[in-house]
Structures
1.
Amino acid sequence: MNNKIKNSLKIIIPALLLLIGLATIVYPKITGEPLTPVYKYHELKEYPLWEIPIVYIFSYATRAWGPLLFAFMLGGFFSTFISKEKMMTYFSSKSKRNYFIAAGLAPVFTVCSCAMIPIFAGVMMAGAGIGPAVTFLLTAPAANIMAIIFTSEIISWKLALARIVFSFIGAIIIGMILSKTSWGKKIEEKYIGMAGKRQAKIQEMGIENKFWETMHVAGDLTRKVVPYLVLGLVFVSFIEAYMPKDIVAKWLTGVHGVILGGAIGVPTYTPTLVEVFFTKSLINLGMSASAALAFLIGAPMASIPSMLGVSRVVGWKVVLSYAILAIIVAIISGLIYLGLGVGL
């Protein structure tokens, strides 16, 4: 194979993988059908104990392989093609404006919290500040455009509006708080230093090698994140199988319902948009609107699989900090909604 063909393939392969991943996200939005078959299981508790995580992970893989492919490749492109200077301009922790930019860009990404991990990692590797990067990480799954539309259509426009407002404000506040912590600053300095060294090396590459570098980054992120993501999915599969939804729903009213709604989102992971249907089923069983809001904010921001994956990028201190703050934001949002007496 001559060098011309080899160099062309170095550009074509990463670009094609990115486009295939994007197609799996866009196609269902246009047609209402997934691009590839999705495996749907029945009641998980009906399967043998050993089979539950296998069935759950296989079903997740058939739903999420495309968005994850897109996310890992996009993370590679972010870290390779976005300069440290650009990141320092638009995603620096020093400017309050940048938190609003991060929160404003995030809703475009209609992906679940797990698919946001490699995108977040790519942003950090490009030299972003920890504050805006975390704001970006949390806003996308909690308040992306499709999630808000689904919430409006399936539950109510009032809850959809509250979801986007409280998610937006909450993610900005969480990002700002994290940027002031010593552990947040330490991680930020580490990645900014790495970005400077890495981009000095990337600038010397030709365009074909820059494209191929995205494959190396995507592969490295996959090795770091996927094992922890799978571990989280195993845990969640048993929660979904054995959590008594009807009993839980009876407790999801009033103040204690809001607190429980914000907290149960941590072990109760659902792929993007599925959380809307899950919440609707709980509402039908008696869940209050305020508890539903707390769940719709807390679950996408602080799910166990997502936290396990993000811990490989920024460490457990940052992860536990934003997770605790996300639950607090979810509960406060639900309590405000309850106090206003808005309902569905």
2.
Amino acid sequence: MGSIALERADVVVGVDTHKDQHVAVALDGLGARLGELFLDANNDGYAQLLAWAMSLGQVHRFGVEGCGSYGLGLARFLRRHGHPPVEVSRPPRAGERRLSGKSDAIDAEHAARAVLAGIATVTPKLADGQVEAIRLVKIARDTAVKAHSTAIITLKAVLVTAAQELRDELEPLTDFRLVTACACLEATGDFADPNVAMRHTLAALARRWIELHDEIKIHSRLLKTLTRAAAPELVDAFGIGHDVAAQMLITAGDNSDRVRNEAAFAKMCGACPVPAGSGKTSGRHRLNRGGNRQANAALYRAVIVRMRWHEPTIAYVNKRTADGLSKKDIIRCLKRYLAREVYQLLPEISAARPPETLRAVA
């Protein structure tokens, strides 16, 4: 990481993005502020931004906040017009905000200075291919799974307050039989009667559970098809499967070659150790609480499967246990190893590797 060597005539633009309006600030190559622009978050506004920036000099780079959300449209527009942006991942720390204040223009200027200083160097995800489709289907599936769990939990909580006769009939049943029985309940009579309202509510929750159950099956089948088509080697790796593979692909993005190396990918997943040494404790490391926590959780699930069924992993666990490491420490080591393996199996990375090397990794 280092500052960019630019001439005064070069222009660096930082953009603070919001749903309906973006704010841009331009700096010259020496860091002097050239101006600011408020623009609508649509194609007309993006064209206005590009024309404004080019009128100030030779545009070197755009730094855009939120390239995965509010800034995605702008990032796509700039990429189409030959100005691939740099993603600025976060605003300044609270201490800096206390000194310089907080406004959209100030945030945009910080974004530009982060690019100029070489702090912001991340290539945004393209979000225009198979992996973006996987991400969208996974959102639909994950939200359905959450609502599915909420429905059965709520049903059981409501059943606790039902009349004793209804409780005696329904509580001994397994979840599936309970839902089936509740879905058949008929609410006839005056809805001002709590017993009638109880039967109506139980039936509604049960039918919701059944609908979500069927919806999840559809999403899961589609997710399996898309994931296998995108990364068959990754899906077939021991302990990975479609769900973990989908999350790994989403973390890397459609352009997985934007991740410089396997160490950078491990950092993205929060699987790399963080130095915590000082003085006599030099060389000490601590748990990494950063990175993509969904990716970290996916690595954890795969590691747990391997610790139970994968012979090389079992042998490693036994060896490290004999060395005195705790189970938590061993899992952290295994997640780091698995992140390295997953990186080599990402589509654009594996395509660039010799076939015999890829087989050795898998």
